[in-house]
Amino acid sequence: QLQASGGGLVQPGGSLRLSCTASVLTLDYYGIGWFRQAPGKEREGVSCISTSDGSTYYADSVKGRFTVARDNAMNTVFLQTNSLKPEDTAVYYCATVRLDGSMRYYTAGDIIHNVRFTAWGQGTLVTVSS
Fold first, then answer.
1. pLDDT tops 90 at residue 23
2. Given this model, what pLDDT does residue 71 score?
3. What is the pLDDT of residue 65?
4. pLDDT tens, residue by residue, 48-65
5. Cα–Cα–Cα angle for 95, 18, 76, rounded to 5 degrees
6. What span, in angstroms and rounded, lies between the C-alpha atoms of 49 and 93?
7. Is residue 14 over pLDDT 90?
8. Which tens digit of pLDDT belongs to each residue from 70-129?
9. What percentage of the chain has pLDDT greater than the value 70?
10. Distance CA 9, CA 51 (A)
11. Is the dihedral of CA 17, 22, 117, 53 positive or negative?
């Protein structure tokens, strides 16, 4: 079971730390992705981390502002969101996929673009507004 939390209302330029908790997050050979969906828009893959090689991926829209990191002791993956903009307003979801076979050699960018995530948490709403 994935549990995402940490959303809320923040002013432009502010920060939030989103958390995704699940026991599988301590295991090797998993991809953990963060996605977001704004009203009337398609779901967007925002960030990903691979527990196979530790590689990370960020969409161009968040690069330099968001950071993904894993804390094994807490069974948690964090998405630190800084310098938030109104266009970051969306429901944010975390999702996981077990990497089998050749997928274990995929980078985080390969995973989020080419692999179907199989487990999804409930979303957490991020609203950026003054």
1. no
2. 87
3. 98
4. 999 999 999 999 999 999
5. 60
6. 14
7. yes
8. 987 888 999 999 999 999 999 999 999 999 999 999 999 999 999 999 999 899 999 999
9. 100
10. 31
11. positive
Here the tokens at position 8 are 């809320």
Q: Name 5's Cβ contacts closer than 8 Å, sequence gap at least 6.
A: 18, 19, 21, 124
How would you write the chain as a 3-class SS string? CCEEECCEEECCCCCEEEEEECHHHHCCCEEEEEEEECCCCCCEEEEEEECCCCCEEECCCCCCCEEEEEEHHHCEEEEEECCCCHHHCEEEEEEEEECCHHHHHCCHHHHHHHCCCCEECCCEEEEECC
